[in-house]
Amino acid sequence: MFEYWLFILFAVVLVGAGLGVITARNPVHGALALVLAFFTAAAIWLLLRAEFLAIALVVVYVGAVMVLFLFVVMMLDINLERVREGFWRNLPLALVVGGIMVLEMAAVLSKRIWGETPRQLPASYSNTRELGRVLYTQYAYAFEIAAVILLVAIIAAIALTLRARKDSRHQAPAEQVKARRAERVRLVSMPAEKE
User: Fold this and answer.
1) Other CB atoms within 10 Å distance of the CB of residue 61
2) What is the CA radius of gyration of the chain?
3) Which contiguous run of DSSP H or E holds residue 47?
């Protein structure tokens, strides 16, 4: 019963944080509300005994993505009036997408509320081990394809943002490998100095 009320508390906080994300006038406040939403979602994952997913959510989204997002938002000078211009124009589409998401969640939860009870797992069950087993056996090819796509995206992002500056010195490894000792070192014979 305690877990049920804890879930209700976390769900209320999560919905409130989500509303804070979309209603915040300041982008930094919206990003901080999103951090709260991620932490609360991780707490719900912990209640569902999905420790690995909770830690991954905190490490990946809060630790990397949100810090980067906050850094970009704070470094850029954002014109807030221009950002708010399209709010009313995009509201109908946002309501349709939000309604579809609510229906999907209701369909997922209705089976548990009115239908079957979830299967009981043994005490030695580890969801991290099960996730790894499924990920690296049943979905191994999809996992590898996703990794290759992410690698290509990283390389493309670096290639698109890389600018060759004329005023900076750089190394040419191909030229360095071609160097010969005779071209680089010259021995000069000098007479010894006498005091």
Assistant:
1) 19
2) 28
3) helix 27-47
Question: In this structure, which amino acid lies at residue 29?
Answer: H
**Tally of CB atoms within 10 A around 43:** 19
Helices 127-137 and 140-161 cross at an angle (nearest 10°) of 80
Residue 145 has pLDDT above 90, yes or no: yes
- For the stretch 106-140, what's the b/e string if a residue is b when 16 or more beta carbons lie within 10 angstroms of its beta carbon? eeeeeeeeeeeeeeeeeeeeeeeeeeeeeeeeeee
Structure token digits, residue 155: 């390389």
Closest CA to 136 of 125, 120, 147: 147
Per the CB < 8 A criterion, the answer to whether 44 and 7 are in contact is: yes
Distance in angstroms (rounded) separating the CA atoms of residues 83 and 47: 37
Answer with the residue of higher pLDDT: 13 or 192. Answer: 13
* DSSP letter string, 57-72: IIIIIIIIIIHHHHHH
Question: Worst-scoring range by mean pLDDT, 39-48, 63-72, 108-117, 131-140?
Answer: 108-117
26: DSSP letter: S
Q: Which long-range contacts (CB under 8 A, 24 or more apart) does 85-93 make?
A: none
On whether the CB atoms of residues 47 and 3 are closer than 8 A, the answer is yes
| pLDDT surpasses 90 at 16 | yes
Residue 47: Cβ-neighbour burial (10 angstroms; 0-12, 13-18, 19+)? middle
CB contact at 8 A, 62 and 38: yes
